[in-house]
Task: inverse folding
């Protein structure tokens, strides 16, 4: 796939397909799509298969969307690595920024990442951090592809579903008195 993307960097659909594969491969035990059991340790000092897939997925986002999983702009750092010469020499370089499907995968990955960071604590602060970071991921994606891109309604539907799920239901006075 790498050679294909090198010669056809505008192929956002293929980038999304590769991203889907890497998303599943980077899942840990107990996560959605992850393995049922841990099959043992890799060699000491080596990255596991899921860690390698996660690293590749993050690289894919940096190169195709131009942002990292924290929501920071990833393109200036890569241009500095190239010495400022031929900044278009990177694989994709943010060409797929208008891809709604790729942004939906980015949001899904970012939510999974923040859940991993807060998996040890079940406090209200952890749930608020997950909610805030998820909101930032949606707003970043909407800023790039929520208005002028093809199929942007899919992104808006996901965002509205997220908003509805994150707001507690309002209980009327009559329902409170009945309980």
Result:
């Amino acid at each position: 796939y790498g050679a294909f993307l090198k010669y056809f960097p505008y192929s956002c659909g293929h980038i999304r397909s590769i991203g889907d594969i890497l998303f599943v491969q980077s899942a840990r035990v107990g996560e959605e799509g992850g393995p049922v059991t841990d099959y043992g340790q890799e060699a000491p000092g080596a990255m596991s298969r899921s860690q390698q897939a996660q690293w590749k997925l993050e690289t894919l986002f940096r190169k195709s969307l131009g942002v990292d999983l924290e929501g920071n702009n990833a393109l200036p750092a890569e241009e500095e690595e190239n010495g400022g010469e031929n900044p278009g020499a990177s694989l994709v370089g943010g060409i797929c920024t208008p891809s709604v499907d790729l942004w939906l995968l980015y949001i899904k990955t970012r939510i999974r990442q923040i859940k991993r960071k807060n998996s040890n604590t079940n406090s209200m602060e952890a749930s608020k951090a997950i909610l805030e970071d998820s909101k930032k991921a949606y707003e970043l994606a909407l800023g790039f592809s929520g208005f002028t891109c093809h199929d942007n309604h899919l992104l808006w539907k996901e965002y509205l579903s997220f908003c509805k799920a994150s707001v507690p239901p309002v209980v009327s006075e009559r329902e409170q008195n009945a309980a």
User: Anything to note?
Assistant: Confidence is low (pLDDT under 50) at residues 77-93. The first helix runs from residue 2 to 7. The helical segments are 2-7, 12-25, 49-64, 75-81, 100-117, 124-145, 152-166, 173-178. The CA atoms of residues 17 and 102 lie 9 Å apart.
